[in-house]
Structures are given as structure tokens and as C-alpha cells.
Amino acid sequence: MTDHIHASHPDIVKRLKRAEGHLRSVIDMFAAGRPCLDIAQQLHAVEKAVSQAKRTLIQDHLDHCLEETVGARPKERRQSIDEFKDLIKYL
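The line above is the sequence of Metal resistance protein; the predicted C-alpha cells follow.
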């Protein structure tokens, strides 16, 4: 298996570590008997952080793989690839 290290990976790891801390806080909130609204808000923050990390990872990986596969091509031959790369931003 080859190493796939992308420029976005350190930021993704930071985001996931932050989410990990929030998740620990949520567990503590249950133990402390905090109101459901507070817990739901924190769970939403954890969910968004993980979702954004996943989105960034997928977008960066697809972008990197497309560039590696397609390589240097004339602009007129890259249009569909460039459109696809723009499209994946909406995942």
C-alpha cells in the first residue's frame, strides 16, 4: 500500500482532534445531566466537524488523483476534468 499524504491532511487531523474533544465533552454532558438541547447542539457541532473533514478528504483525494491521472493536457482537452473538479465541491 502506498502512502497518500496530501496538503490537506494536517488540517483534517486538527479538525478531527477538535471533534474528538467535543465528543468527549458530549459524553461528560450526559453524565452531568445537562439539558438535551445543549447536548444536541454539541452533537451537531461534532457531526459537522466530521462531515467537513470527510468532505475535504474526498475532494482533495479526487482532485489529486485526477491531476495525477490526467496530467498536463491542453486547456481544450481539460474542460470536462475541470468541470468535474468544480462539481465535486458541492458534495
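Note on the example: The helical segments are 9-31, 36-70, 75-87. The two ends are 27 Å apart (CA to CA).
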